[in-house]
Amino acid sequence: MSSLLIQNIGALVTGDIDKPLASADSIYVEDGVIRAVGKNLSQRADSVIDAQGITAIPGLVDSHSHPSIGEYTPAQNSLSWITNYMHGGVTALISAGELHIPGLPLPPDARTALSLALVTKRCYDNLRPSGVKVFAGTLLLVPGLSEKDFDEIAAAGIRLVKFIFYDYSLLPNGEAERYVRWAHARGIKVKIHSGGVSRSGVSQIAGWEIVSRIKPDIIGHITGGPIPMAEAEMIRIVAETDHYVESCSSGNYRMALVLARAVKQHNAYRRVLIGTDTPGGTGIIPRGILREVSYLSSVGEIPPEKVLCMATGNVGRAHGLDIGFIQEGRPADIVLLHKITGSVAEDALDCFAKGDLPGISTVIIDGEVRVAGRSQQTPPPERAATHK
Ligand SMILES: [Zn+2]
Predict the structure, then answer these.
(1) Distance 339 CA to ligand 1 centre (A)
(2) Domain 3-58+325-387 CATH assignment equals 3.40.630.10
(3) Residue 180 alpha carbon to ligand 1 centre in Å
(4) Residue 230: how many other CB atoms lie within 10 Å
(5) What kind and span of H or E run contains 274?
(6) CB 164 within 8 A of CB 130
(7) 235 alpha carbon to ligand 1 midpoint, in Å?
(8) For residue 311, which phi and psi values (nearest 5 degrees)?
(9) How far apart are the CA of 128 and the centre of ligand 1, in A?
(10) Which residues of the chain does CATH 3.20.20.140 include?
């Protein structure tokens, strides 16, 4: 049994959008699980981190990423991106489909799509680059899948399927709605690529009409990936439906601002998820989630502790995963961060509110310290946690 005690935390963000801040200054972890969150905890532990008064947040969960093979991304012919994202505070990645595999016929036929999902799922089950949890094997929904295929992905532990290449002219035959029923019957969530055509060139366009027909759980990159649906259609989805909506850092900034306003007006904070939609044509952006949190907090004028929940607990809840919270019984995925020297902000939360990025000091995944002292991908925080 290994244990870890984090003391002297300043602000503590919970990941729970209904109660984003905890009045607590310490976290006790045993065997990778958070056992206690409270004030002045003093359990004996194998190792102790003195947070020196800086902020603790749940590890960031990228709601929309595109892993392919290990840490290699064909999208930019680059290596090691997942480790670099971890240094940007990301402790989990949700795959929006492994569609960058070189030579993959687009759209794939049903057997190819199914095989790709199963192989990728099995590989990432066996591989955690720098400890990062990669939820991959997201099945790309194409015509011709059978209910048995949904049994097979459920048995493999796949929990997400995605509409992106499905030919919506086939909607009258009822197959797409059947896919949604088959997924839900097995506890699998459904995401849709919304907006205009993606880099692949063959993704299908989806706005209000398609979304209200198919009724997926999550509207992928509603503010653009990179091209959003019409503004009025996006607002209608926020105002008139219960769908989760993603805002990705690779999207349209103006639409992200429109989304922020609509979310405030309709009190839809619980339904917003933050992702990057990378790697892709926008590149590899280790600080992508931090930048989106900063944008929605400062320009979008949503309190930063709430926006952080959209990049942590909301994403876990929407995808049916137990990650994204600093709460008893949850995996100990924790990031410690603070203002960067020279920033006019007071602390990490104030950084986001003012549009600055904070510096990361410590990243912990399943109770294991992965970054100590400072991150390789942010400037150093003015004050860093110490670990002994
Ligand atoms: Zn995408």
Answers:
(1) 31
(2) no
(3) 19
(4) 12
(5) strand 272-275
(6) no
(7) 21
(8) -105, 10
(9) 21
(10) 60-318
Give the pLDDT of the chain (388 residues) as one tens digit per residue: 799 999 999 999 999 999 999 999 999 999 999 999 999 999 999 999 999 999 999 999 999 999 999 999 999 999 999 999 999 999 999 999 999 999 999 999 999 999 999 999 999 999 999 999 999 999 999 999 999 999 999 999 999 999 999 999 999 999 999 999 999 999 999 999 999 998 888 889 999 999 999 999 999 999 999 999 999 999 999 999 999 999 999 999 999 999 999 999 999 999 999 999 999 999 999 999 999 999 999 999 999 999 999 999 999 999 999 999 999 999 999 999 999 999 999 999 999 999 999 999 999 999 999 999 999 999 999 999 999 8
Domain with CATH 2.30.40.10 in the chain: 3-58+325-387
| Residue in the structure block whose two tokens are 């929990």 | 159
* Domain over 60-318 is classified CATH 3.40.640.10: no
Check if the beta carbon of residue 4 is closer than 8 Å to that of residue 51: no
Structure tokens at 328: 């008893």
User: Ligand 1 center to residue 95 CA distance, Å?
Assistant: 8
The pTM score is 0.98
Cα 31 to ligand 1 centre (Å):
34
88 Cα: distance to centroid of ligand 1 (angstroms): 19
Q: Which amino acid is at 21?
A: L
